[in-house]
Amino acid sequence: MTAAPTLDAGTVRRLPKAVLHDHLDGGLRPATLVELAEAAGHPLPHTDPAGLGAWYVEAASSGDLVRYIATFEHTLAVMQTREGLLRIAEEYVLDLAADGVVYAEVRYAPELHLRAGLTLAEVVETVQEGLAAGMARAAEAGTPVRVGTLLCAMRMTFLSREVAALTVAFRDAGVVGFDIAGAEDGFPPSDHLAAFDHLHRENMPVTIHAGEAFGVPSIWEAVQLCGAQRIGHGVRITDDIAGTKPGPLASWVRDHRIALEICPTSNVQTGAAASIAEHPITLLLDLGFRVTLNTDNRLVSGTSMTREMSLLVNEAGWTLDHLRTVTVNALKSAFIPFPERNALISDVVLPGYAAAGFSGAPTA
What we know:
Blueprint: H1 9-14, E1 17-23, H2 30-40, H3 49-60, H4 65-70, H5 72-77, H6 82-98, E2 101-108, H7 120-140, E3 146-154, H8 160-169, E4 175-181, H9 193-201, E5 207-210, H10 216-225, E6 230-233, E7 241-242, E8 245-246, H11 248-255, E9 259-262, H12 264-270, H13 281-286, E10 291-293, H14 305-316, H15 320-332, H16 338-356
Parallel strand pairs: 1-2, 2-3, 3-4, 5-6, 6-9, 9-10
Antiparallel strand pairs: 7-8
Helix pairs in contact: 2-3, 6-7, 8-9, 15-16
Family: Belongs to the metallo-dependent hydrolases superfamily. Adenosine and AMP deaminases family. Adenosine deaminase subfamily.
GO cellular component, one term: cytosol
Keywords: Hydrolase, Metal-binding, Nucleotide metabolism, Zinc
């Protein structure tokens, strides 16, 4: 990495950003959650938006992935109606645009939004409508952002085949890929081989949550049995690295450019990493893995892409070169057509980093 200018918060905020791993139900505005919960009669731990935001960060910082996931009870409670989903999806996009994000993939599980009578297809149609409204408003404001959708199946239930079919059905309406999510330990991705077989037959991209709460076996199944092109989190790939020497699986992931969707703050909260300074994201980047930087859940982690980047600059010594590399990596591994990826890199990201003082060479 070459020397880079000093990175203050304003410079980082202005940088063009790309995020591949961000959950819709983990990214609500606290004020919106308070308002929608009151209308729905759902009790919250706090009715003050600032207090609620602080509660989320504290509750999610237990070092336990299961408890982290449990905090979603409140956001899901207000995401059961068409009106709620439309508003949340539109605001989601506007918040990304305000953070300098130019490309994002949002993920959510349609099966978690059926309590008020919506069907799986109606949930997807509604979210896509809200995302489109947000993209239109962002473009009008001069801060365009392209958002693709990943549909998640919950690894603890048995709807993955149906969600896979839904993913294919909406591929021309903004859905760009498939994921499985939920508690990792005890629920291997190979439980959902029928879904993955269908997706592969239909040439649909796949990412899989793996290597967060469980280690190398989970990543191996995701890659070698289920054919994942990206790994959600994947931080436990370090279990297959001795010093700076990757083992067989880690080498396969690196050499085949299988992107790691790493979420530093979230990893610290769930105990997958000790701290930002000690997070293995820098080691993995230095070893040539296709590392991408992500937020995971902006409300739950009290974060943004600007904050994630700034933390790595201030606590792990990252430079503009590091930030540019993970941004380009994300776009190279995005689940959109190659010409669109290239255009975002050449027309948006590279000029944006050049304006900030980037002087390095392209990365692989």
